[in-house]
Specification:
- The protein has nine helices and 14 strands.
- The chain is of the alpha+beta class.
- The chain has a four-stranded antiparallel β-sheet with strand order 8-7-9-10. Strands 1-2 form a two-stranded antiparallel sheet. Strands 3-4 form a two-stranded antiparallel sheet.
- The mean pLDDT is 85.
Length: 353
């Protein structure tokens, strides 16, 4: 056991968290490397991890290395910026706009591809988890009327007042219709029948009644074709949900809840403790987030390079060197600000806990 970031983790949790982050970033950089090699660019270095080199070898023009800190990877192409470009045909900045666009896009694409593969593994090996249609209570939320009234996970609801209940939809629908009204629940608890009276509280946002219960979760096995389809849908959902969340926060001028490196390590460690299914699922979600962030039109990240390439395609000439330098400074400010804010949020959460 080791103590890190305010909580205790096992060595397995620590290794899983660090390796998970490293693999996600490495796969991202691998995408850039493959596309750069495909277009015959000169790649000076391709590394797993960063910091001092532990072991490596040179093959052709590229130095391949394993570095001391396994939290990512690096691809160093010749002539990556206007400051270092000499005009050689094998440099990044010498490539036409569409090649630079594809090289930049290949990193986020690999993160999305990895997410789909991880979701497929989770679905085919562990199955698809979905709420049960049976009126059986799977979870009782603390602080809600059901917990106070004495409901327990596993309770079978057979009726409410004088109305028979056959499935979860009937159960939840009846509760939603009567906020503030005492309801008498007929319960079957391991063969013992009883009655519990509880008053649903009114949800402030929707106005419906809630007592704080959730259905049981069932696991369903599916074929490979359905697993691929479900995985693609999950990746799309994660992307759209994230964009909608950020958009709502921006419109409302609200502070978004972001996790920095400390928070990511924490949640990965918890997922590793919960099992391989949880770990793979969370790695897929983070891979989507990493790919999506790099698609945003922020200078210095892949989305920024893609945007500059598209600007060149539209106006038939690249931005001037001074304009590119100024744009990159703006991008650096945005990236550093997001990193500091996310790290600050992590520290506040730890201190509050």
């Amino acid at each position: 056991m080791i103590h890190v970031f305010g909580f205790t983790v096992t060595w397995f949790q620590s290794i899983a968290a660090v390796a998970g982050i490293g693999i996600l970033v490495f796969i991202h950089e691998l995408g850039h490397f493959i596309m750069a090699k495909y277009f015959s660019l000169k790649v000076e270095q391709f590394a797993f991890g960063f910091g001092p080199e532990i072991v490596g070898f040179t093959y052709g023009e590229t130095r391949y290395s394993l570095n001391a800190i396994p939290l990512g990877g690096m691809v160093k192409m010749t002539g990556e910026s206007a400051d270092t470009a000499t005009g050689s045909p094998d440099e990044f900045m010498s490539q036409p706009w569409y090649k630079r666009f594809l090289i930049a896009f290949s990193g986020p694409f690999m993160n999305y591809l990895l997410a789909v593969i991880l979701f497929i593994i989770v679905i085919t090996v562990w199955g698809v988890q979905q709420p049960s249609s049976k009126p059986i209570i799977g979870e009782v939320l603390a602080g809600y009327p059901a917990a106070t009234a004495g409901f327990k996970p596993g309770d079978l609801v057979t009726g409410i007042d004088t109305v028979a209940v056959h499935d979860w939809e009937e159960l939840s629908g009846y509760i939603h219709r009567f906020p503030g009204k005492p309801l008498s629940f007929s319960i079957d608890r391991k063969g013992v029948r009883s009655s519990i009276t509880v008053t649903p509280s009114k949800d402030a946002a929707s106005g419906i009644g809630l007592i704080g219960i959730a259905p049981c979760i069932e696991t369903q096995t599916v074929g490979l074709g359905e697993a691929v389809s479900a995985s693609v849908r999950m990746v799309i959902f994660q992307s759209v949900f994230t964009l909608e969340y950020l958009g709502q926060k921006i419109v409302r001028w609200e502070k978004p809840d972001l996790a920095g490196p400390i928070g990511v390590v924490q949640i990965l460690a918890k997922a590793a403790d919960a099992g391989w299914a949880s770990l793979f699922h969370l790695l897929a979600v983070i891979s989507v987030a990493l790919g999506l962030f790099n698609l945003l039109p922020i200078p210095l990240v892949d989305g920024g390079h893609m945007t500059l390439s598209l600007i060149e395609a539209v106006f038939r000439r690249p931005l001037g060197k001074r304009a590119v330098v100024m744009v990159n400074y703006v991008g650096l400010f945005v990236i550093v600000s997001v990193f500091l804010f996310a790290t600050y949020s992590d520290i506040v959460r730890i201190a509050t806990k």
